[in-house]
Write a structure and sequence with these properties.
779 residues; alpha+beta; Ubiquitin-like (UB roll); 16-stranded antiparallel barrel; 14 helices
Length: 779
């Protein structure tokens, strides 16, 4: 008899027992509730138990001699025994003054065995099933485990998996549970269609969502897996995208994945309603909280009248206001944006209403989903902790920070009621993803006056979440015909528990020129401090040593020989560096909008031989020129100057430009040159440089967007001039220029870029490098 039937019998106050009859038949004994209620029990009889002791069963029943056992007591006893999970059948009845408990014990699982699984390891499958060795066997649990295995395979793109479970009886009430798995073929996403989109193309919207069409590299990225949770997250990404581009009425009408029964492949269709595009109208603050002035909060407003409506800018304003209010002693003040649409003008008036919110405190923060990342790495991104005043806006800030870490496939923060009406429990669901990256760069150098030409290659390995501790470690090596580079760095983003990033790095570089060789080695330590979400400051110290060797005194540049005569072949530099970085780039891997500015300065002279001040600036601005054509424009500027403090700048400390500043020219391929007595010229760097780039990026029309390829056309210009050596030539402000095209690939390893540039304006002594292959991330 099934447990549900037993419980129903108990609830109806009738105990139904199956007892063996003469000749092997079954007889039904009905014991009325009235009889049970009238019985006074003096003893208990436990029957059918083999492993579980009678005393244990008595404890679960709640047996007490001399107690009147009613139908309700019998019902409760049955429930308690079933709840243990130890029994497949339970019968409790009263016979005279004896409470009779008959049980059938669950079989014990000896082993859980998986057969036919190749794409998922046994350990991975054991983590999703509930039946475990030495646990009680239960048919319903085994059925649930079959479905759990099927769901696990669906999450890796194998929706046609079949799982059959069998029970092998080993005797003595022990069983083996065997899951026979036929994994089937990998399910492919053949199409992702959007319906109702007019402002943005299918290609642009496909770049917003994380689900991609299957392509030859999908086995690496695993982003072509159809999953309901991922599709729901993609809907949220689409909402954010549209809300931040002015479409405040945007809705996802439906999203579905239709499976072809013949092939098992999936076609995803997402239907949207874009609505109208709005700009901000009047923006104001209305405070109803005594002691809070609207004028004091207007300085925190990020939204500006006339600008395209952006939900993110509204959110940034809410965060800034909440922080200002908390700092002013109003932790429970609540800021609510109230929008008023004007359909005639296409604007939204926004009023930030400040009210006294409900008093609520955070009872605890629960973190789930993170199999690799440590809990404290997630907790430290919150400006809230247990016991603090609950603030929904600051929770959203924490979510943005966690998403910006790029450690997780998705981050969801939800709340549930705590143990009291004014207590809230925060639940953070952060699902880990791969954080390792492999980068490679290459180039081919020809022509010029200094070192030999040929191929140069640089490779690096980066782990952004080392051992799940949120630390970053990078190792890079490179070299060519005449150079070698080695470098390693380690970053702790929360040094000493503060939001202070500490980075330590070491390096060694060697370079062979025609008339001399150099070797540089050293290290640095730096600290980065966020001032605001977009503005960061940094300060650090570096020490490096430079050495000249194999100097040809007859033909080496005069400035090199003068440096050696004055300071020897070894040169030490001890310097302090500091800078500011402003970054609003929307996506560092695939930027469409935003501004990046970096100003830094190096002061050398705290010991060592070098005494100078070096100042550098770099800036990039991205803007979408055409949403429909997915045309993105970029403008980049750079500049630098080095000035000696009481002494000339040694040649090895001068700036040297390369493909990072102007494509089409090799590293140390332009600028002042100098020769020795034999007239063999070498590039010796310059004291001042300026560089500029204009670029347009666009999708490659013949390639599917899911492959991650884009094209670009660009024009570069740069100049490098000035040198303290009196015998140097080409020290004037001669400009170089180049133009070319690029192929940018968002590869599974890292964003890669292939550049081909042709020098248009150049000097006869310049050293060309028309082809360059590198990691494209520049931030």
């Amino acid at each position: 008899m099934k447990p549900a039937q037993k419980l129903l019998s108990a609830v109806s106050a009738v105990a139904l027992a199956l007892t063996p009859a003469v000749g092997g038949g079954l007889a039904l004994n009905l014991i009325s509730a009235k009889a049970a209620q009238a019985a006074v029990v003096s003893s208990i009889s436990v029957r059918g138990n083999k492993r579980v002791s009678a005393a244990t069963i008595s404890d679960f029943v709640g047996f007490k001699a001399g107690k009147n056992y009613s139908a309700a007591d019998v019902d409760d006893a049955v429930k308690r025994l079933f709840a243990t999970g130890l029994f497949s059948d339970v019968n409790v009845s009263v016979s005279g003054s004896t409470l009779v408990v008959s049980v059938s014990e669950q079989s014990i699982v000896n082993q859980v065995i998986f057969r036919g699984n190749r794409k998922q390891k046994d350990a991975s499958l054991r983590s999703v099933v509930r039946l475990q060795p030495r646990g009680a066997f239960d048919q319903a649990t085994m059925d649930d485990d079959v479905q759990a295995i099927i769901d696990s395979y669906s999450r890796i793109g194998r929706n046609d998996v079949t799982v059959n479970a069998e029970v092998v009886d080993l005797g003595e009430n022990r069983v083996n549970v065997v899951f026979n798995i036929q994994e089937g073929d990998r399910t492919k996403i053949t199409q992702i269609n959007f319906v109702g989109n007019n402002a943005f193309s299918d290609r642009r919207l496909q770049s917003v969502i994380s689900t991609k069409k299957s392509n030859p590299l999908s086995w690496l990225t695993r982003n072509d897996v159809y999953d309901d949770q991922r599709l729901a997250a993609d809907e949220e990404q689409l909402r954010r995208f549209y809300f931040n581009h002015g479409y405040a009425d945007f809705r996802v009408l439906s999203s579905s994945g239709d499976i072809d029964p013949n092939t098992g492949n999936v076609m995803i269709t997402i239907e949207v309603d874009e609505g109208e595009r709005y700009a901000f109208g009047n923006v104001d603050v209305d405070s109803t909280v005594s002691g809070v002035s609207a004028d004091d909060l207007r300085g925190t407003i990020s939204t500006r009248s006339g600008a395209t409506y952006s939900a993110e800018e509204v959110e940034n304003t809410l965060i800034k206001m909440s922080e200002r209010l908390a700092a002013a002693g109003f932790p429970f003040a609540e800021v609510t944006p109230v929008g008023n649409r004007n359909f005639e003008t296409g604007t939204i008036d926004v009023s930030y209403v400040v009210d006294q919110g409900q008093r609520a405190f955070i009872e605890r923060i629960e973190i789930v989903g993170n199999a690799r990342t440590r809990d404290y790495v997630i907790r430290r991104e919150f400006d809230l902790s247990e016991g603090d005043a609950f603030n929904q806006i600051l929770l959203r800030r924490a979510q943005k920070r966690l998403e910006a870490l790029d450690y997780f496939e998705r981050v969801e923060i939800t709340t549930r009621p705590g143990s009291a009406p004014d207590r809230v429990i925060i639940v953070v669901n952060a699902v880990d993803k791969s954080t390792g990256e492999f980068g490679i760069g290459a180039g081919y150098t020809t022509g010029g006056t200094s070192s030999n030409g040929g191929v140069s290659v640089e490779a690096s390995i980066l782990e952004r979440n080392f051992l799940g501790r949120g630390q970053a470690i990078r190792v890079g090596v490179g070299g060519g015909v005449d150079n070698r580079t080695y470098n390693m760095s380690f970053t702790e983003p929360y040094f000493l528990g503060y939001r202070l990033a500490a980075t330590a790095s070491v390096f060694r570089r060697t370079q062979n020129y025609n008339t001399y060789d150099t070797a540089n080695q050293g290290g640095s330590i730096s600290f980065g401090l966020p001032i605001t979400e977009d503005l960061k400051a940094d300060i650090g110290y570096s020490f490096d040593q430079s050495e000249y060797s194999n100097v040809n005194t007859a033909s080496a540049p005069a400035s090199i020989q003068n440096d050696i005569a004055a300071y020897g072949t070894t040169w030490n530099k001890s310097a302090v560096r500091y800078g500011l970085t402003y970054n609003t780039i929307d996506d560092v891997q695939d930027p469409h909008e935003g501004l990046y500015l970096r100003l830094s300065q190096e002061v050398a002279g705290l010991g060592g031989d070098a005494k100078h001040v070096a100042t550098t600036f770099s800036g990039s601005y991205y803007h979408t020129l055409s949403e429909e054509a997915e045309l993105v424009g970029a403008v980049k500027l750079g500049a630098g100057n080095i000035t000696g403090i009481g002494q000339d700048i040694r040649t090895i400390d001068h700036f040297r430009l390369g493909p990072s500043q102007i494509r089409g020219f090799a590293y140390n391929g332009i600028g002042p040159i100098e020769g020795g007595a034999t007239g063999v010229n070498e590039h010796i760097g310059g004291k001042t440089f300026v560089n500029a780039t204009a670029e347009a990026q666009f999708p490659l029309p013949l390639l599917a967007p899911d492959l991650g390829f884009k094209g670009a056309v660009f024009a570069d210009a740069a100049t490098l001039f000035g040198h303290d050596s009196a015998t140097a030539v080409n020290t004037g402000m001669e400009w170089r220029a180049s133009a070319g095209f690029s192929v940018i690939w968002q590869s599974p390893f890292a964003p890669l870029r292939f550049d081909y540039a042709v020098p248009i304006v150049k000097e006869a002594t310049d050293k060309e490098q028309r082809f360059n292959f590198s990691v494209s991330t520049a931030f």
